[in-house]
Amino acid sequence: MRRACPIAALLVLLASGGESCSRVPAQPESEAVQPDQVTDFAVLYKQNCSACHGADGWGGPAYPLADPVYQAVVDDATLRKVTAEGIPHSLMPAFAGSAGGMLSDRQIDAIVQGMRQQWAKPDALAGAARPPYAATASGDAQRGGQVYSTFCASCHGPEGKGGAKAGAIVDGSYLGLVSDQELRTGVICGRPDLNAPDWRNDVPGRALTEQEISDVVAWLISQRPQFPGQPYSGPTAGGSP
Length: 241
Known about the structure:
The chain contains twelve helices and no strands. By secondary structure, the protein is mainly α.
């Protein structure tokens, strides 16, 4: 019986990669990132904000967060508070876990910082003085009616029920869905996605003053019905339309 050639056996072992003694153990697969550990702005915004504020901060039913004027008017503390705690008596929910939401403090910070990095522009106000985001003095509804006539009626109609350029601003359902602060934000920042001007451009060359902003907001609040959302008037039961 012929003996196996030692050299041939060595060549076979080398060709097989020396599996008997040098195989590297398989590396374990990386663990999936837990939901509360996600801090990527794009992911967090898409999952929590885009349905209302639009895919890129524009084009949703809620205020466009990508508006540079809004980003210039609201400060970091307010933006974080609104994101974390929501806006009472409005459709803006709380997102922080401490306020009943599902996001951690780190995730709230990631959303706020991401908005600033993506959409804030240092020259957004073009040198104009920034009105305070929140009112510092009470407004007067009677004076606000005059302010409305001067700055707003040309678009929204003389009574706020809609005009040639814009829709109704005193609709009871609308006023029942927005908070006082949201009304103020709209007066200051406008709605650039709807071609509504900000406080500097309602009347060319004549910006609203801080007091005028508070007054016209007070007038809008005074138009809110006591029980918003009541059915509109219509035919009685069994009557003809």
